[in-house]
Structure formats: structure tokens, C-alpha cells
């Protein structure tokens, strides 16, 4: 992989949600975290979510920052779900995971699917656990709404962490889904 510049906006603070960290490259959004309680947790979560290749060159790109901030506030504070305004950078991302996440992105706000339904949709009905693995590694969890994927009986997990189920429930409620 050649020289690669990642532009960082360390964190956004979104009222009543917490801190969200993100990074992007010339190719688009590299990763964006789920809301965390502290800025430090958001930064750690960003690094765990998707490792940054090569060196990081911190640079201000006000236009990109403004687009991301606006989208986050519209969604998290008003429940307005528009198309995300910048591309995703899929560089180095496994094809199966990308395929799964692209299918998840097609699920409209207010709708849900089960892990089994999603597995069948991507052409491998027995790949339910692999689907969970792909969702757990989703580097764009608010834009590609993995919270809309539910277990057969109940809400299921979220982001590979049990205590995040409350956040999953909150996001579903924001979109008008009652469980």
C-alpha cells in the first residue's frame, strides 16, 4: 500500500449521545465510532474499530468535518436520516464483510431484519455467525445501520459488546421501531 493520508477530526460531541470519533482519507470516511461516554473512550474505540495504515497526517478539512457533524446532528438529535454526504473508504476491507454491510445499508429506517434473513440475502443462509462477525467490524455503524439487525428472538447483541444493547435499543427507538 502506498503513501496514504488520513485526516482526523478527533471527536464530535453530540448532545445527549456522547463523543463520536472519526477519521477519513482522500478515499472517503475511514471509520466512525458509536457514541462513547468520554472523548478518550471514543479515540480508543476508533483505533480498535479500524487500524489506520501508514502514518497519520493530521489536517483540517473544514468542509468534510462540517458535513459529518451536520449528518450526525440531524440523525441523532432530530431522527432525520439522509444519505451520508461522503463516500466510504473500503481500502483493505474483506470482500465478504463489505458485501454484508452494503446489504445492511439498504435497510430503510424503521425496518429491521434478522441475522438469518441477512445471511440468506447475501447468498449463504448458514453464515449467520459470519454475518455477526461482519457487523461487529462495521467501521461505519451509524451510517450502515447494523442496529437494524436483530436476533430471531429478541434484540440480539450490538458492536460485539453486551452493554451496548441499550444503545442499540435507543437507536431503534430514534427510528420509530418499538420492541
Automatic annotation (TrEMBL):
<keyword id="KW-0489">Methyltransferase</keyword>
<keyword id="KW-0234">DNA repair</keyword>
<dbReference type="GO" id="GO:0032259">
    <property type="term" value="P:methylation"/>
</dbReference>
<dbReference type="Pfam" id="PF01035">
    <property type="entry name" value="DNA_binding_1"/>
</dbReference>
<dbReference type="InterPro" id="IPR036388">
    <property type="entry name" value="WH-like_DNA-bd_sf"/>
</dbReference>
<dbReference type="InterPro" id="IPR014048">
    <property type="entry name" value="MethylDNA_cys_MeTrfase_DNA-bd"/>
</dbReference>
<keyword id="KW-0808">Transferase</keyword>
<feature type="domain" description="Methylated-DNA-[protein]-cysteine S-methyltransferase DNA binding">
    <location>
        <begin position="96"/>
        <end position="177"/>
    </location>
</feature>
<protein>
    <submittedName>
        <fullName>Methylated-DNA-[protein]-cysteine S-methyltransferase</fullName>
        <ecNumber>2.1.1.63</ecNumber>
    </submittedName>
</protein>
<dbReference type="GO" id="GO:0003908">
    <property type="term" value="F:methylated-DNA-[protein]-cysteine S-methyltransferase activity"/>
</dbReference>
<dbReference type="GO" id="GO:0006281">
    <property type="term" value="P:DNA repair"/>
</dbReference>
<keyword id="KW-0227">DNA damage</keyword>
<dbReference type="InterPro" id="IPR036217">
    <property type="entry name" value="MethylDNA_cys_MeTrfase_DNAb"/>
</dbReference>
<dbReference type="InterPro" id="IPR001497">
    <property type="entry name" value="MethylDNA_cys_MeTrfase_AS"/>
</dbReference>
